């Protein structure tokens, strides 16, 4: 089974309080429309992943099809995609260690 990932959820959907002296960059402001768009894309992608998983197990004959190049680019032979959730978790932990 795959290793478990660190997941950081916001309490009540709010950003954590940051003391003014710790802020090195301007505070990001998320509008309600932005959060709604992110939620829409996330939920739509979850549906696509479920449909792809169902297609692999033979449940569905139609639905999304995962694109695979017939002749892969040799320049991308050693490409390793980044696990963005893991990267953010490492950044978060590093920030905590630097502040303490």
Automatic annotation (TrEMBL):
Coiled-coil regions, chain positions: none
Keyword entries, A-Z: Cytoplasm, Nucleus
Subcellular location: Cytoplasm, Stress granule; Nucleus
Domain of life the protein comes from: Eukaryota
TM segment ranges: none
Main location, first listed in the record: cytoplasm
GO CC list: cytoplasmic stress granule; nucleus
Family membership noted in the UniProt record: Belongs to the MCRIP family.
Protein name: MCRI2 protein
Organism: Oceanites oceanicus
